[in-house]
Design a protein that fits this description.
Oligomer: single chain
Strand content: 15-25%
Structural class: alpha+beta
Number of strands: 22
Largest sheet: 6 strands, mixed
Order of helices and strands: HHEEEEEEEEEEEEEEEHHEHEEEEEE
Distance between the termini: 89 Å
Radius of gyration: 25 Å
Number of helices: 5
Length: about 400
Amino acid sequence: MTDLSRIYARFLCMTALLLPLAGCPLITGGQNPPELDSFQINGGAASTLEREVTLDNVSHENPTHFLASESPDFADADWWVYSEAPAFTLSEGDGAKRVYFKLKNYKGESSVLSDEIYLGDLPAEGEGEGEGEGEGEGEGEGEGEGEGEGEGEGEGEGEGEGEGEGELLEELVELPGGLDLSMVLLPAGNFYMGAFFLEPGGFSVETPQHLVTLSQPFWIGKFEITQAQWLAVMGENPAYFQGEAYGDTTNHPVEQISWDEAQDFCTQLSTLTGDVYRLPTEAEWEYACRAGSATRYFWGNDYDPILIADQAWYLGNSGETTHPVGLFPPNAWGLYDTSGNVWEWTADWLSNYSAAAVTDPTGPETGSFRIQRGGSFYNEDYFLRSALRSYGVPEAGGWSNGLRVVREAN
C-alpha cells in the first residue's frame, strides 16, 4: 500500500468513527431539560380492546429517551429511546388504566404527565363510574352530579393530582375591624415534590424528587397575610415597609415576622375565630404553590426568564420593596403571590428528602431551622421556583419574611 493509500484509508476510518456522533442525541440535544407539552394514550381515546397502545406525546428541547409506567413512581420501568408515538403494553385485566410518562435528555428530565384509558368495553353511563356515586358533591370531586370520584380523578398526576375539576370553594373569615380573611379549599391529592433532575437553578437540598400524597383536603389563605390583617389580629404592625415613605401599605404582606411570631398569630387567630389555624406543612405549601404544575414555576419553566416579570415580585421588578397582595395573576387554584413578594414560613423543621413515596409528611420532630418557601421581592428569579427551600432560625424575623395560614377542612 502506498503512503497516499494509507493516508486515505486512515481518513476513511476516522470518518467512520465520527459520523455516528453527528446523529447522537447527547450531542444535538437542547440546551435545557425536555419539556413535555402534551401526552395522550391512543390519541386521547376513551377506551381500547387491545392491551397494545401508543403513547402520543408532543415535546420540545430534544428529548432522547422516555419512561412509561402504570406506577406513579415508575417502579421497574426502563428508559427507552424517544419517539413521538412509542408502543406500550397495558397490564392485564379490563378496567381503567392510567399511564405515567416522562422524558429526558442530557440536561435532565421533564415533568410527569399521565393519561387514562379504559381497557375493554366501556360500562354504560352511570354504571361503575367511581366508588360512591355522587360522593363529595360540592367539594369539586368528579365532573358533575352523580358521576362520583372516578371520572377525572388523578387528572394531570405528576403535574399534581387533585380530586376533581371545577371551581374550588372559597370562604371569607371575618376579622376584627370588619376585615376579611379569604380562604380557598384545596382537594386531597398527590404530586411530585422537589426539583426535577438537573433542574436549572436547583439545589441539592431540593432533591430527590419524590411522590407525596395529601390524604385530606385543607383550607389555605388566598393571599399572604397583610399588614392590616396582622394589625387587626395582633394589635400592632411590625412591618418594615410602612409609614410616609412607602404610602398606603395596609394591603402589603406583613414582614419582619419570625417563625415564633407566625405561630403566635395562628394561635390568636384561632382564639378569635373558634377554628384552628396553623402554618402549612412544607408539603402542603408546595402542593398549593404548584396547583397541578410540575414545572420550575407555577406558570411554566421560564428558563430565560422572560415571563416572571409579569407573574411575581422579585429583585428584577420590585424596586426592593413589598407590593400589595394580589396584583399579579393567581396560580391555577386561585392563590396569589405563592412566588415572590415575601417568604412564607412553613411548619416543618429542615431535613433532607428521601426518594420514598410519603403520605401527609410533617418533617422531623426537632431541628435547628424552620423552612421558608416562595422567595421574595429581594431575590433573584430562581429563588421563586416552586421547589426552592430556604430556612431560618425560629426566633429571627427579617424584612422579607411573612406567612400564609392553613385551616383543616374538618
